[in-house]
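Hi everyone, sorry if this is the wrong subforum. Our group has a chain we'd like a structural model of before ordering constructs, and none of us has done structure prediction before. Sequence below.
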Amino acid sequence: MTTKWLYQVRIRVNEKVSSDLRNGIKSSTTNKISAVAKKYGMTSVCTYDAFCDYCQEAEANGVEKYSLYEWTKATIDDPEKRDKHVKSFAFYKGSDQVYDKSLAELLHQDLASLQNNGVIEELRLIDSNPENNPQPPRKYQTYF
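Answer:
Right subforum, don't worry. Here is the predicted structure as tokens:
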């Protein structure tokens, strides 16, 4: 049986664009990114903000129930990693962080034109296959 992986599109932008996107400030650049997201019924979510939300939820509900809490907390507390993730945005379809490959490829294709125009510094199509994604370092791995 073949596993059907789901996908996510991520972009990296400069500090100014990140600040504008995170604060809902409209500009030529944020309008372009938002228009592409809206075309597919998506929103852009700052990776750093999503990590912070995850940690806040875990702290409110008991961190022992959140297997990635320690790793995520260490990431947001590291200034170098914070600077990296604050400029990274994932596209969510409603509350879905991953979605079918066909949708991800269409979104990726439209965002590529913005990358070519210098609006986006980096564009990535990520699959949900654990072999293709970073796994928590051993010191953060927990088993239930």
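For your construct planning: The chain has one domain: 7-127. The chain is about 45% helix and 15% strand.
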